[in-house]
Amino acid sequence: MSLQAFKRFTEETLSFVGRRVNVETTDGRSYQGLLLGIDEKLNLILSDITGVDENVVKMIINGDFIKEIKLVEKPFDFKGLADRLSRVFPGLVKLREDIGAIIVMDKIKITEHGVVEGSGLAADRAKAVYEEFIRETRK
């Protein structure tokens, strides 16, 4: 595998962390839960799990037994939001998918949860763009 392909695979895999996934094992078992962590061997840590005994709070699944990992929830459209913000703040928007954020004017940080850093009129405008984007994408 080329270095670029390996890097892309790793980035995509890490984008599942913090999201609900469905994991099917080679022995036919299926678990759904919040993916807390994953390593290069596809060993997983899940919490908030369905499909197991109710007393299980967290679970580690050995990567050797994983058949499939499916993302159950739609990932946040950072690119779409960054494009929208770029219309309001031309040349001042940086998409940082590696940290799950968009940086506007090097001082306003926007995550999938909204404006988490920054204040003032520009931050208020960024918040309004974010809220409009969320309303439109939920329709």
What does this structure look like?
The strands form two sheets. Strands 4-3-2-1-5 form a five-stranded antiparallel beta sheet, with no helix packed on it. A four-stranded antiparallel beta sheet has the order 6-7-8-9, covered by helices on one side. The longest helix is centred in the C-terminal third of the chain and has 17 residues, at 121-137. The chain is built from three helices and nine strands. Helix 2 (78-88) packs across helix 3. The model has no long low-confidence stretch (mean pLDDT 90). The chain is α+β, with helices and mostly antiparallel strands and 139 residues long. The chain has two domains: 3-71, Roll (SH3 type barrels), CATH 2.30.30.100; 78-137, TATA-Binding Protein, CATH 3.30.310.60.
